[in-house]
Amino acid sequence: MTASSVSAAPSVLLPTYARAPVAFERGEGPWSITADGTRYLDFGAGIAVNALGHAHPHLVKALTEQAGKIWHTSNLYTMPEGEKLARRLCEATFAERVFFTNSGAEANEAAIKMARKYHAAKGSPERFRIITFEGAFHGRTLATIAAGGQQKYIDGFGPKVDGFDQVAFGDHEALKAAIGPETAGIMIEPIQGEGGLRSVPPQCLRGLRELCDEHGLMLIFDEIQTGVGRTGKFFAHEHYGVTPDIMSIAKGIGGGFPMGACLATEEAASGMTLGTHGTTFGGNPLAMAVGNAVLDVVLEEGFIARVAQMGLRLRQSLAQLKDQHPQVIEEIRGEGLMIGLKLHTLNTDFVAEARANGLLVVAAGDNVVRLLPPLIISDEDAAEAVARLDRTARAIEATLKRPAAE
Question: What is the distance between the terminal CA atoms of the chain, rounded to a whole angstrom?
Answer without folding.
Answer: 39
